[in-house]
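A note from the maintainers: we've had questions about how concatenated examples are separated. There is no special marker in the raw files; a new sequence line simply starts the next protein. For clarity in this README we add a label.
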Amino acid sequence: MKLALRRFCVPATVLLALVVAGCPAGHAQESLSAVPGQIAAAMYVQQWSQILWGLVTTQTGTEIPSFGEPVFDPDGSVTQTFTAADGTEVVLTLLPDGSARLDITYADGTTQTVIQSVPRFDGVSVTTIHWSVTSSDGLSVEYTSIVDDRDTIFDESDDITQLLGSSVLPEGITQEFDVLSADGLTEVHSSQSDGSIFTLAVPLAFPDFALPDLSQSASGTYIGLGVSVQFMLTPTPKYPTRWAALLADLGDGMTGTFSLNSDFSGFGQLTESSPWGERLVALISWTQDGDTHVYLLSGQDRHMGPAGASLDYLEHRWQTLTALLAPAPGVGLNAGRPGRPRRAPRLRTGPLGPSRTLRGALGPASRLGTQRGPGQRTLP
């Protein structure tokens, strides 16, 4: 994939003039068939970036949630409540056997229940946990987290974490996913029942390799009906600490060069290369919710949407307590061998901040639903 980062300093009036003076409208119309696949790739990037690391929330600002006092019940369980800035109420119950339950009530009245099984340790280095997520609006997720600590219980940098599972939308569309974090890299592979496939490879930040290194480029693919998109996410000189550009190769000489905002909305241009040079096909912009406008060579404004189920899965992405309090990938709540530091929440009042204290506590315990505003980070 041959991609080059381009500048976005051309005045809008000049760009519009270029659009009007571009190639024939009929040819441009044919080229626009690649746009829904391009936007689908952007939607899946946003979905998984929020699920795994809470990037949308982190980059657009977060308000501090409020915490209730922990309650130590006679049966040995511990219960604590918290309220997010948007009014979401959460009850976390930690049971003596290491299992847990998360009951979430969102501001719109939607509820979600997350069940974490008792962690199973193989006696050497591997911990396995099953997760079940159900929502009152018909969404569900089932997956297993498998973590190999490589027999270095005090060093998480060499851990191998894998999430294997599936999710089901209310309309019946399914998504099979496999997320592997190892050797400083997280790789995402999801296959949807609409026939589309999405992949993403993200370098992780030294030294813990728990969060993405946004100063490095990430890459991925989206394959859908009649379209194959290879893309790169990269920082820019103006924004060196986040992905600020999305560069795409759509095949047949078509490339996309886009600015990426902190909320994962974007804008830029679609161009086509030929033996006679490169010509502008269209200007494209999209919102965080996937609302897409294409400015055609004729000067018309075409309203379009992403391909396949990408928008549905963006709207129903997971929202987790773990990511809200400490966005870092990992295992589950009492994961670990005897003597291994307990990876459970520090039950306390006040914010836990960006530390790893909740690493894996209620791992992608999710809200398969629309993002609920500030104060929510999502993560396995």
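[label: protein 2]
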Amino acid sequence: MKLLLVAAAAFAVTSAAHAAGACGTDQMVTMRVSKLSASGTPAGFLDAVKDHKAWYASHGMKDDSFVTAPVLTPAKGGMKPSASEYVTFHVYGAAEPKHDAAWDAYVAKYKANATIDSETRFCLPKGASIGR
């Protein structure tokens, strides 16, 4: 079982690297929709996002950008921000460096606060942006 988990993790990292190459001169983007777990909090999830951004910046990935916002849900009279679901965009600037203990720490924060409902990768034309 442990070997299966290690193989799955290696596949995920390899897949992200191959996907980045698949975009040619465009930028790879990962979009995740996450739902807070029963014990998760918005503050804990947003702290994981902060650490995620910091990890990439501290590993020389200064061109990577992140945007996180609550998912909008139908409400009486319109839409309202969800209290339990968030969408996160990660626009990659370059290939991902090797994971380390700090990477493991921010991933653990995510896992302690939320689960990923969906994950989609796509290529964004160079120069286009998500957010401001």
